Amino acid sequence: MLPEEITVKGRKLIWHHGPLAADDPLAAWDGLLAGRGLTEADPFFTSRLADLPDPLAMTDMDRAAARVARAILDGEKIHIFGDFDADGVNGTAILVEALRATGTEVSFSIPHRAAEGHGIGVEPVHEAVAAGIKLGISVDTGTTCFDACAAAQEHEFDLIVSDHHLPEKTLPDAFALLNPARADCGFAERKLCGTGVAFFLLVAVWKKLAEAGERPDFDLRVLLDRVAVATIADVMDIVGVNRILVHHGLQRLNANPSVGMQALLTVAKIKKTVTAETIGFFLAPRINAAGRLQHGEAAMRLLSTHDTGEALKLAKELDETNKQRRLVEAEVFKQAEFVLGDSEVLAVYDQRWHAGVVGLAAGRLARKHGKPAAVGFVTPDGVVRVSLRGTPGFHVGNILNACSAHLEGFGGHAGAGGGSIRAGQWDEFKAAFGAAVSSQAAHAADHSLQPIDGILGLNCMHIGLAERLARFEPFGRGNPVCLWLLKDVQIADRRDLKGGVTRLKLTDGSRWLAGIVFGANGMGDAIEPGLTVSVIGELQQDSYRGNGAIQFVIKDVMA
C-alpha cells in the first residue's frame, strides 16, 4: 500500500503501527487510536499530577528525604553539586529555590565544562566541608563519582547523589544514591532526567516535613516549568511519568512561567503557545549555551532569579552566547567530517576544538550517519575528553560501559554521555567504541526509514481532526508526532517567507489545504508550483491565522 520510491530526504516509508488509510476525519482518528493501542478514555490523555508515583518508592529515597528534612528543621546548611547542561542547571535551580523557601541556607557549585568536566569533584567536597556544611545533594551527576563519595565519607559529610545516568556494576559509597537506573530501583520506568529525580526528592522532603507538622508554604508545582524544560532538553522519553511532568510544565510555561523562563521566552520572541518543540528549538539551546562556551552558573542564576531586570539581562547574554555557539559548532562539525573521511568508526578528536560544542558535533554526525558518534577535545593538561551521542536503537550508556577499560571517568544514559580517555589509549578506545557500536547495530533502528501513521485524503484535513491530534501533545521521544502521507496533491502556489519558511497551497482538484515547510532548501526543486507530489507531514491547527484554520507541516516529499 505504501509507495516504494525513496523520499527527497532519502527515506523509505514504513507503517508506524500498521496499514491505515482514510478519507474521513473520524475514521483517521479511530484508526490512529487503534494503532497506538489507546481509547478515548485512556489515562494517556489526562496527565494528572495525582497519578504521579509515590517518591518514597524510589530506592534510598526514604533515607535521603529524612536527612534533608532533618537538616531543614535543624537549620543546617546544604550544598548543591550541580552540572553545567540544561538538565543540571534546571535541577540545581529547583533545589536551591525550594530549599531556600524553607529558610535554609543553600550554596551551590557547578563545574566548568572544559576545566573540570562532568561529575562531582573532590575539591568542591573539601570546600563544602571547610565551610562547615555537613550535607550535600548532587543533581544530574554523581553515580560514577567514587572519589568524591569517598572524600565525603572521610570527612563525615553526608552526600546524597540524585542522578539518572547509567551506573557501573558497583555503586559509590554515598549517604544515599537516588537513581532510577539502579538495578535495584526502576522508579518511573527508569525514564526520569536528573531534574526529575531532584523534583521527586523535593516531593518526598515535603511529605516528611508535613508529617512533622512543618509543611513549607511553598508550592512545588511552580517548579514544573523547569522540570519540563530539563526533560525535553535531555531528550527523555515523553511517556508515563515524564508525560505528566512535561504536560503540567508546559501549562505553567504558557500561563505563569518563572521569571527566568519568561525572560527567555521574551528574548527568543516566542509569542505563540509554548510546546515541547519550542523548548527543544528555542529554550534549551539558550540555556545550554552558557555551559558550552562560558559557565553554567550564568544559566543557573537566570533560572533561579526573582528579579525581572536581572533575568532579562541574563537572557540576552545567553542569547548572544547561543549565536556564537552556532558558529563554533558548525566549524567543528565541518572539521570533524574532514578528519573522519570515509572512516566507519565515528570517533575523532582535535586539540583545537571547543569543549562546549563537541557533543553537538557528535549529534550532527550521528544523525547524518545513523549511528553513534564520539567527538573529543583536549584539556589544558592534555586529557582527551569525548562526548557521545546516539541514534534510535542504540544505548550510549552501554557503549561507554563497554569502553570503560579505556576511560578514567564517564557517565551516560541511552542518548548521550561522555568521559575522559586514559593517557595514550585513544586508539584502544576508538576500537572498543567501534566494536560496541557494531554489536548494537543489529538491533538498532534504520535511520533511512520514515514511519508514518497512515495515508489520508484531503477530506481528512479538518479542524476537528487537528484538535484531536493535539491531544497527543506533548510530543517527543517515545511519543512521536503523528505523520501522514497525502498522495498525489498539486502544488498550486508557493511563497517563500523570512526565516526559511515556505507556504504552499495544495489541492487535489476539488479541495484545498495550506502547507508550510520549514527549511525548504532541503527539498530542492521538489515543491515547485505546478508539480504533483505526495507529501509527508503533520496536521496542525494554524494558530497564526486562527478562526479554525489548519495547516499541513510538510516534513518530506515524494516527487
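Above is the first protein from milestone M3; the second protein from the same milestone is given next.
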Amino acid sequence: MKPFSVRHPLALIGTAITLAALVLWLMHPAWLTRLDYIAYDAQIRAATPTPLTGNVVIVEIDEASLARYGQWPWPRSVLAGVVNRIRDAGARVIVLDVVFAEPEQRLLEPPDAGARREENHADANGQAGDRFVAASPGDLDLRTSVEPGRVVVGQYFRFDGEGGSKACLLHPVSLSTAFRFDAPEAPYPMANAATCTISEVAGVAAGSGFLNASPDADGTFRRIPLLIGFEDHAYPSLALAAVMSYRNARAAQLLQQQDRSERLRFGDTSVPVGPQTTLLLRFQPDPRAFDRVSAAAIALNPGMLRDKIVLVGGSAAGLRDTLSTPMRSEAPGPDIQATAIDNLLSGSGFERSPSSRTAEVLILLVCGVFCTLLFARFRPIASGLGAALLIAAAWLGTSRYLDATGVFVSPAFAIVLVAVNVGALSVFSLARQRRRAEHSESQAKAARAFMVTMLGNLTMLRDLETGEHLFRMRRYAAILSAALQKYPRFRHVLTDERVALIGELVPMHDMGKVGVTDAILRKPGRLSPAEFEEIKKHVAFGQKVLLDAKSRSTDLDEAIWTVAFHIVSHHHERWDGSGYPEGLKGEEISIEGRIVALIDVYDALVSERVYKTAMSHEEALDILRQSKGTHFDPVVVEAFLREEQAIRRVKDEFHRKPVSLGAPWN
C-alpha cells in the first residue's frame, strides 16, 4: 500500500478522467445511448418475469385458418363471421389488429352489357367501360358484426402530411393533465394526417386505437406510444383503447410526480410513461406465453375466450409482422400488442425516470472516485481486482433495483469509466514502475493480461461469442506461433517476447465490434451487402481506439501497441489481396495478422453458432488446404497442419455450445 495525496499523479489522472466522463454523460452522445440499450436489454432478460394477468387471448390467423377460409385478405363477410364467433364465445373486448381504410368493392357487369358490346363494338382493351364498381355487402356484414359493441378497430396517424383518409371517424380519449413543474408544449406526438377504418365500421365500434410504433435507433423495439395528438384531441393506442374499453374507462389523466416522472392513469390503473407518453414494455421470456387459438378452431375452445380481451392477428407465413425485441430477434406483432395490453392491465411497465438519471450520475462519480483511490493507494493487480468488484457491484445493484421496482438505472457508462480508468491508470502506473524498476516483469504481464481480458469481455457483451472462444484463440495462437518460430524466415521476427504478446493480445482482435449495431451484429441469417459493409467497419473502430490510446499515452510500450495494432488491423486481410480494410497482399500483411486470420476462421468453422452448425475438424482442415495461397499464407497453413493434433486437442477440450443471448431497448 502506497501513501496517498490529492496531488498524486494517478489521483490527478483519475480525477480528470472522471470529470471528463461526467461532461460526456451530460452531452449523452448516440454511442452512449447504445451502451444504455445494451445494459437495459441484458438486465431485463435477467429480471424476474411478471406473471400475466391471464385476461388476454390471441386468435391467430394461421395456416389452418387460411386453409379453411381462403387466402388473406379474407372477404369482410368471412371476417365478420369470425368476430361473431368470438363474441358468441363470451369475449368482453375484441381487438382487430388491422385498418379497414377502404370500402370493400367488387366489379359487377350490367344486365345489358352484352347487347351494348355488340352495339358499340368495344375494342379488346375497352372492356372496362362495360363494368361498374358497386359496394360489397361485406362492409355491411362487418358493420353488423361490430355494431353490438365490444370491438376495437385500428387506425394509423401520419406525421408527414401526406396521404391519410379524407374523412375519419375517430374515438378520442378525454384527457386531463397535471404537471407540477414546467410542462412540455405537447406531452405526446402531434400528427397531421390519419388513415382510419371506414366510418361505416368505425362509427359502430366500441373504440379505435392507433397502430403506430417504431423501434429505437439500434433497430430494437422496446416501447410503444400510448397517446398521439391530432386536431386538438388526444387519441389512444390500440392497446390502450382495448384496456379502457375493458375497464369501461372514458377518461385518462397524465400526471407528473414529485420526482418529475410521469404516469398515465385511467380508471383505477396507472402506468409509468416516458418522454412523449411512451410505455417501456415488460416482455415475457417465453415466446408462447399468451393463450392463443386458431381462428378456425374458436368453436372447439368455447371457454377460453370468456370475459377476455381477444386480439385477432396474423401468424401464418407471409402474414407475420415481426420485430426485434430485447427478448427475441423476431417477435410477432400480435404478441407485442398482447404484451402492451397485459402491461396496461397490470400497470407493470418498466420505467426510466428523472430520479434514475440522477442515480446514474451518482454511480458514475462513486465509481470514478473509488477507482482513482484504488490505483493511487494499491498496486495494479489489487487495484484491478477492486475495480472488477466495483463493476460487479454497479451491475448487480442496478439489476436488483430494476427487478424490485421496475425502474432502470443504467450502469453502462459507469462500467465504461471504470474500464477506461483501469486502462489509463494501469498503463501509467506500469510505465512508472518500469522506469523505477519497482516491479518484476511477471507483475507487468499480469496487469497487461488483466487489461486485455477486460477489453475482450467488453467485446463479448456485444457479440454472441462465449469466453471459450477467446481462450481457444489464445491457445491456438500460442501453438501456431511456436511452430512458425522453427522456420528460418520467421526466426528473427517471432521472438519469444513477440510470441508471448500475440498469445496475450489476440482477444483484442474484434474489439471494434462494440461500435457495430445490434441489428447487424446479432442478425441470425446472412448479411446483406450493405450490412456486411457496416460490419467491416469494426476494424476501423478498433484501430481508432488503439490510435487514440497511443496519442494520449506518452509512455506506452511500443512493442505491445504494435502487436495489438497488427492483430486488430490485419486479421481480415487475405494473402491474395482480396481482404479488408486495406487489401494488403502477401508479405505486406503482418505475421500477427496472418496467424490470427487463420485461427479465427478455423475456430468459426468448428464452432456451433446460433445460426449454423459446427464443421468437423477434418472438414475445416480441407477448407484451410483449399484456401492455401488465396486466403492464407501457405507457410502458415503448413505449420498449422503440422500441429493439427495439438490444435484438435484444444478444440475438443475447450468447446461447448454457444449461449444464445436472445434477441438483440427503449
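Note on the second protein: Residues 380-405 form the longest helix (26 residues).
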